[in-house]
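Open question from group meeting: does this chain pack into something compact, or does most of it stay loose? Before anyone orders reagents, we agreed to write out a predicted structure and look at it together. Recording both the input and the output here so the notebook holds the full record.
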Amino acid sequence: MAGLSNQLSQQRPRGPPTPSMSTPAADFDQVTGSPPPPPTPAASPGPSHSRLNWSNAKEDEEAYLSSLRKYFMQCNGGQRTRLLADLLNLCTSGQLSFVHQFVSPLLKKDPFTTLPDELCLRILSFIDDPKVLARASQVSRRWRDLLSDDMTWKNLCVKHDYQRRLSEVHRPIHEASTVKPEDLSFGQQDDDSASNDLAGALTSTSLPATFEGRANARPVLRSYKSHFKQRYLVDAAWRSGGRNVTRNITQDGGVVTSLHLTSKYIIVALDNAKIHVFDTEGNALRTLQGHVMGVWAMVPWDDVLVSGGCDRDVRVWDLSTGVCMHTLRGHTSTVRCLKMSDSNTAISGSRDTTLRIWDIRTGLCKNVLVGHQASVRCLEIKGDIVVSGSYDATAKVWSISEGRCLHTLTGHYSHIYAIAFDGQRVATGSLDTSVRIWNVQTGECQAILQGHTSLVGQLQMRGDTLVTGGSDGSVRVWSLKRFCPIHRLAAHDNSVTSLQFDDTRVVSGGSDGRVKVWDLKTGNPVRELVTQSEAVWRVAFEDEKCVAMALKNSRTVMEVWSFSPPEELLDEQSMLPPKRRPDGPVPDRPLSAFSLDYRGPGSATASIAARRTVTTNAASAHVDKSTIPESDDEPFHIRLSDESFETYELDPPPYTLEVTKKQLKDMYRDMVTVRQMEMAADRLYKEKKIRGFCHLSTGQEAVAVGIEHAINKSDDVITSYRCHGFAYMRGGTVRSIIGELLGRREGIAYGKGGSMHMFTKGFYGGNGIVGAQVPVGAGLAFAQKYTGGKKATVILYGDGASNQGQVFEAFNMAKLWNLPALFGCENNKYGMGTSAARSSALTDYYKRGQYIPGLKINGMDVLAVKAAVQYGKQWTEQDNGPLVLEYVTYRYGGHSMSDPGTTYRTREEIQRMRSTNDPIAGLKQHILDWGVAQEDELKAIDKEARNHVNEEVAAAEAMPHPEPTPKILFEDIYVRGTEPKFIRGRTPDEVFYFH
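C-alpha cells returned:
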C-alpha cells in the first residue's frame, strides 16, 4: 500500500505552490541591510491548503482514475466541457476552492517568455521610473536578461536628461574650476543629438587630463545602465544624503572674499591677505603668502592662479609649489575683479576705473582699457570680448585684441555689481534693484527684469535661463526667451552672498547662515546643506562636490560635501547579468541601485541633516501648472511641502489638497481683511480710543482663515483672547468687532466683552483666565457627541496656556469620553515676556496629549492649516476621539498692546519673519506663480479690503456708547424671554426686576 501511495504521488499532477514549497529567496540589500522592494509584478500569494494526501487511497482507485483519464482524453471539446461541468456541480464549496486555487496559476502566463525580444523591449521603453525597472529585473531570469539590454537604459537616460556626466565633459580647466554650466548644452538638444552626445561620452576610452585624478579614483563607466545608475545615485545623495567634512580655516572671523573649486584644488582667499589651497577633500596643501593686504579677486587656470587685492598688485602663482611667479604692478587702487581669457592672458578691473590686460608668462601689461568714471566692480569674458560693470552705472563692451571700447551700455540708475555674459547677451545687476539684458552686438537694452527690492549682486546665465540673487534675500529664476520670472524663491532671511546653478539645481548661500538647494525645474526647496552658522561667505559646487565657506562661533570654517556614490556600487562587473548555470539554484540577482535611499555609508552627519522638521515657509506648496483649470470653480490638486507636518502616534494627513481658484482668492481676501482689521485696532489703541486689554494676531492670520475654510458653520470654535480674526471668520463683521473693542453698544458682545470676550453663532471668544477656555471647549465637544451628528469643536489656546492643569484635565476627559475635540496650540514662540523654550520643558506641544495622537502643522501656510484641519475633522467624524494640533506660527506684535515685544526678541528677528515667512505674502506668491490671478486683481482685492475696513471702522466709531446706568449691567445675561422675575441684590434697593 505504501508503494502504491508513493507511485500515486509521483503520477498525480502537483497542486499549485504553497507556502511549504521552496521558492527563490528575496535578495538582501547589501548596502541598506534591508530587503529590497517587492518585484514588479509581485508574486501572488500561494493557497493555504495542504498538499494532496494519497496515503489513504484505495487499491482500485488508481485503475478507476486511469480509465477515467483515458476516456477524458478521447472526448472532444464539447464532451470534455459537459463532463467537467457535471463534475463541478457535484463539488462542495471546499472542493471548488481547491479547483480554483489549482487552476488559477495554470491560466497565468508570463508574456515575456513568448513575445520576441524586440516587442518586449518596446514594452519596457514606456517605463519612466527606474525603480520599476530595477524591481522588474528581479522577477525572473528572462526579465533580468531583457533589462540588461543597454538600449532600455539609453532611453531612460534621455528621458531623465542624464545627457552627459559633468565630470566627463571636455572643457578647459578654468571653466571647470569656476563651474560655469552655461557652457554645456544639457537638455537643449533633440533626442538624436542628445543620444549621440551621450554615446560619445560613454564609449570614450579616455578622459581629458583635467579629470585624470577623478577617473583614476573610480571605475570607468561604459554602459548606459552604469551611467544612469551613477547619475541616479548622485541625484539621490544631493536630495537627502552625502558626506561632509568641516575644517577650521582661521581662529578668527576672517572674511572669505573668493572661493574656487577645481578638479584638483579648493582655493580660498581672505581679507587677511592669505590664500589657502586645499585638495578636493578639504585637506590643507599650502598657504600662498605675498599680498600685504586683503585679497579680493582671484581666478585659477590649471595649476596657475592669478590674484589681486587691496595692495593694488596682481600676483601669478604656481599652485603645485606655492611659488609666486610674477608680481604685476600698474593699478593705483584695489583690484576688485579678475578673469582669464586663455592660459596666458588675464584681465583685471580696479577701483582706479581701469581694466588691464596682462601677459602672465612675461609679467607685462599688454593694454590698459580706460573709459569708466568710477570703480570697476565686475567683468566677464567670452572669446575676444570682455564686458565690465562699474559703479558709474554703465557697462562697457571691449575688444581684447584691439583694446578699444565697442559699446557703452547705459540705463541703470546706480552702481552695477554683477555681470553675466554668454557671448550674445549681457545681463547686469544693479543697486537700483533691476536686472537689464543687453544685446552685445548692438549695445541695445532688450529687457528690464524687475522684482528684486534691493541690490542685485548675484547673476548666472545658462542657455535661456538666468538666475539672480539680491540683498533682499530672494532668488529669482528668469526665462530669457520671454523675459519673465519662472520662479520666485524666498531663499534667505538676509542678503544672498553666493549663487550657482546647473541643469538640475540651484544652490544659494546667504548671510543668514544657510546654504539651500532648490529644484531648478519646480522651484521647490530640496534641502539645506550647512548646519546653522552665523553667515555663509561663499558656495561653489560641481556635479558630485559642494564647498561652503561659513562663519561659525566667530571662526571661519569650510564644509566640503561629497555626493559620490560608493565605488562598489559603480563597479561595472557587479551590474552585468550572471552567467546561466545548467543546474543549481538561481544565482544572486545584481544589486539594485534604485532600491537604495543613499545616505553615504557610515555618515551620521548625513542622517542628521536629512531629518525632516516642520517648516514655517508660507509658500512651500507646489502644483503642476498644467493641471490648473481655466474655471474659478473647477477643483485641482496642490502638493504640500513634505515639511508641512510632524506627527505623534498618528499617520500624517494627505500631502495633496483639493482647492479651486475661487477658494485661494477667498482665503487671500480673508487674510488681508483680518490683517487690515488688526492694524486698525492697533491704531485705535495708540490713539487711546481702545482701552483695557487688546491682543492682536498680526502674523497669525493663516491659522484663523485656514481653520474656517476647513470646517462647517455647524462646528464650534472656542479660542483664547487673541480672537479677533476667528470672530470675523465665524461670521462677525468688522464693524461689530471694532465696536466691541471700542466698548460701543452695538459691538459683537454689546460693548461688554472687549478684546477678551467675543461671541457669535458657533464661536465662543476668549477667557480672561489663561487656559480656562480649554475645559469649556471639552464641554462643547461633549454636547456635540451627546446630541450626535458629524460636528467637531476646535479648541484653541496659546503656548503659555499649555502648561495649565485644566488643559491636561480636559485632555483626560476628552480621551476618556472619545470626544470630537480638536485641541490646538497656537505656538507663536513667545508668551507674555518670555520665549516658549524658557517656560516649557517640552516645546513639542503636539506631543502633550500623551495618549492623544498629535499633529504639528506649518501655521504660516494657510493651505497646510486647511489640509490638517480637514484631516482632523474626518478623524473626529470617524469617532476616533480627540487630536492635539500644534500650529507653528509667529506674532509680529507683543503679547498685548502694552507689551512692546522687543525686550525678549530682536527687531531683526521680527523683520526677518515679516520679510520671508509672511502668510499673506506666501499665498500671494502662489496665486501669482500658479496663474490663479494677475497682480492687478490682487491689488484690487487689497484695495477693496482696505476700503471696507476703513468704512467699518468709521461706522464703529459712530456707534453710541452704552447708557451709564446700572440697568445695563443686568441686560444680555439671559436669552430674551427666559429671564427670572428679579435678581436679588445685597439690599432691597439693589434688587433688579426684569419686568
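Observations to bring back to the group:
Residues 118-240 form one domain.
The first helix runs from residue 2 to 11.
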